[in-house]
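Data availability excerpt. The first of two example chains:
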Amino acid sequence: MHSPGPEPRALSLLSTTALRQGPAPSEDHQFRRALAAQSAVHMAEGALAVLGPVPLGEARQVLADLGRAVGMDVATVAEHLLNVVQGLDAPAAVTDELHRVLAPYRG
């Protein structure tokens, strides 16, 4: 009988251990942050649909336009928009631009 050398067995043990442990903490943190950002964007799209009223199909583009206008990424703008909806503080640049962006929808 030929037994496997130490390298294949070591690789086998490493991969089994890695599977049991799950993702590395930094990967897990990145995944959770990405999920939270995507969730905020979806909620902000819904808020725009109510506030605007912006058609839901256009809400993502409105968020992107708002982000470009104030120099922020979409997820950050979404968080600020959700703060506005909840009556919390948001940067004046975001609230001012939000009023400007929503004006055509309020017609």
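And the second chain:
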Amino acid sequence: MAQQELDGGDTVNERRPIIYQANPLIEARKAMNTMEMRLFLIALQDVNPHLSKNDRFYDKKFPATHIAPAQVKEILGNGMYMTLLDKTCDSLAKRVLVIRMQDGMKFVPLFAVIQYRKRVGLDIRFNDEMRPYLLDIFEEGKGYTKIAMKQIFYLSSAYSMRLLELMLQYQGFMQDGCVRRHIELADLRFMLNVDERKYQRIQDFCKR
């Protein structure tokens, strides 16, 4: 898919309305805050994955995602957004996703490129190690979850984004118009990147 340039308008609506993640990535530990999650989601919008044997056109490598300065400012807020941008890019460059494997854990760096240029904008590109979870989904055969960006992008916290991802993973099993899923507390702490010593009761999650 060709790189997309945004010169104005709504960041979400200008790009793909649907994003896809392999199910192991949905259940991974994603240590990202709200702003980082939004940049992650925007980058996902530019990825055209291989989903089925009937696919004829899909990305062979990760495209670069370009976000114009106006959109960067919109995402980070109109206050001291340059300070927030420095901090967000610095932390996002260090983010490593933890993916459960049958025989252990896999630690995968999220992005290969994060670059901001004044009056040009922000450029980000996924690390090639993310291929099995974002590009080669059909080849991996682990299933995938599709999410409409309008459902998730403007949620107020990274926790709410993650909970919605986990629920939508089970949308194919909807009953009576509802998605139901049982998650053990230890698994919930892992997937939400919560210290294993905290929130030992479900009431603590509901409260905080």
